[in-house]
């Protein structure tokens, strides 16, 4: 029996609270926190409620700094440039709303950019009279170089900022952000990387990537509680990036804390426990397999490829992307002629009638709807085989 086969026989599901009776193949949307991490959050919340003033005024900052330090080490970042935000969409908005754009400046996105972030770009462009330029990336796709070429073709002398996904949400592609950042810097273009899916899925080194701005979620593949994400800003831009909610820190000075941290560390009363649980999430997932996070990422990648192959074979479609462009998710085409209903109706049918939690995505035109499967340690090949059989025998015409 192979190593992966052995791992698939272990009841990893017991570490999570996921309900029985549902094939949960959508870790990518919101993640799922292990019981151990939720226990730590409950302990922190109890501590907070037992004496709120002491917790917020005297105990929070050391815990905050500890969590930030652990996260910085995990993602290869300078902790001085790391700020906590509730989600990657907030991180993207924080950068866009802080920067100054002039009429005619160009903001570059791709046609695989997450919808919420495209809306944020549109909002800022409408208010500043900047222009939006969309780089079209083909899907299916054969190689990463095509992504680099399409983005560079869309750059002009007026391009001020490029928003680039590290892992695309609708199509599950890993984009070569290190190369993209390097090539865009050669054209004097600042880069904001939306790494919503990257932490925990990929082995990150933000210092090596070198983007001016990088935001990522900790509640997805890192499995921290919901509402935990980060924004990393390079040292040359920290004085111009401010949180969406301006609070006391904007007017304060400190000999021990930077203005950047004074602003972002306190934006008003909120529940800080999702951020404080990040070290526990890192340690928890690291403890599950013999080689820790390296093993986990390798296992999830292999399982995602197996899921892709199972579903593609059943649907008689060709895998739309090479293995090296996939992490722990795979988006697969559903032939439009075989769809008996609209994509959202098909998603509900799979959930309510067949017990599958799996998203149906609408990608860039002209491709039809995609089904995106995620692979986390609690998933098994049998779940994807079940999904494939249901798709062919009961759902698709």
Explain this structure.
It is built from 15 helices and twelve strands. With 397 residues, the protein is α/β, with parallel strands linked by helices. The protein has two domains: 3-25 and 292-395, Alpha-Beta Complex (Aspartate Aminotransferase, domain 1), CATH 3.90.1150.10; 39-282, Type I PLP-dependent aspartate aminotransferase-like (Major domain) (Aspartate Aminotransferase, domain 2, 3-Layer(aba) Sandwich). 43% of the residues lie in helices and 13% in strands. The chain has a seven-stranded mixed β-sheet with strand order 2-8-7-6-5-3-4, sandwiched between helices. A three-stranded antiparallel β-sheet has the order 9-12-11. Strands 1-10 form a two-stranded parallel sheet. It has helices at 3-8, 27-30, 35-50, 52-75, 88-98, 115-128, 144-153, 177-185, 206-209, 259-265, 273-276, 278-286, 292-315, 343-354, 381-395; strands at 23-24, 82-85, 106-110, 131-135, 159-165, 190-195, 213-217, 229-233, 329-333, 356-357, 360-361, 370-374.
């Amino acid at each position: 029996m192979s190593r992966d086969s052995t791992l698939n026989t272990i009841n990893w599901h017991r570490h999570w609270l996921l309900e029985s009776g549902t094939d949960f193949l959508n870790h990518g949307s919101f993640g799922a926190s292990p019981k151990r991490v939720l226990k730590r959050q409950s302990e922190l919340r109890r501590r907070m409620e037992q004496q709120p003033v002491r917790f917020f005024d005297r105990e929070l900052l050391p815990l905050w700094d500890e969590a930030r330090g652990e996260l910085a080490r995990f993602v290869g970042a300078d902790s001085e440039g790391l700020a906590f935000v509730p989600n990657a969409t907030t991180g993207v908005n924080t950068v866009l709303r802080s920067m100054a754009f002039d009429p005619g400046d160009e903001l570059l996105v791709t046609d695989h950019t997450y919808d919420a972030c495209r809306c944020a770009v549109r909002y800022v462009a409408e208010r500043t009279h900047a222009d939006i330029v969309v780089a079209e990336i083909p899907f299916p796709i054969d190689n990463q170089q095509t992504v680099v070429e399409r983005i560079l073709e869309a750059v002009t002398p007026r391009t001020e900022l490029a928003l680039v996904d590290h892992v695309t949400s609708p199509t599950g592609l890993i984009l070569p952000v290190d190369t993209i950042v390097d090539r865009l810097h050669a054209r004097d273009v600042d880069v904001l990387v939306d790494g919503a899916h990257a932490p925990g899925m990929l082995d990150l080194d933000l210092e090596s990537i070198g983007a001016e701005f990088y935001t990522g979620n900790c509640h997805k593949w890192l499995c921290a509680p919901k509402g935990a994400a980060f924004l990393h800003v390079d040292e040359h831009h920290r004085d111009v990036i401010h949180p969406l909610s301006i609070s006391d820190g904007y007017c304060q000075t400190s000999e021990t804390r930077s203005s950047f941290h004074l602003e972002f560390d306190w934006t008003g009363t909120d529940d800080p426990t999702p951020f404080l649980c990040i070290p526990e999430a890192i340690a928890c997932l690291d403890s599950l397999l013999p080689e820790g996070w390296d093993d986990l990422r390798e296992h999830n990648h292999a399982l995602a490829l197996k899921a892709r192959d199972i579903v593609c074979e059943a649907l008689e479609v060709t895998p739309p992307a090479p293995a090296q462009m996939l992490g722990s998710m795979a988006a697969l085409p559903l032939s439009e002629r075989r769809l008996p209903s609209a994509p959202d109706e098909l998603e509900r049918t799979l959930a309510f009638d067949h017990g599958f939690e799996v998203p149906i995505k609408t990608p860039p035109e002209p491709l039809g709807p995609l089904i995106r499967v995620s692979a986390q340690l609690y998933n098994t090949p049998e779940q994807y085989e079940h999904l494939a059989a249901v798709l062919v025998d009961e759902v698709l015409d």
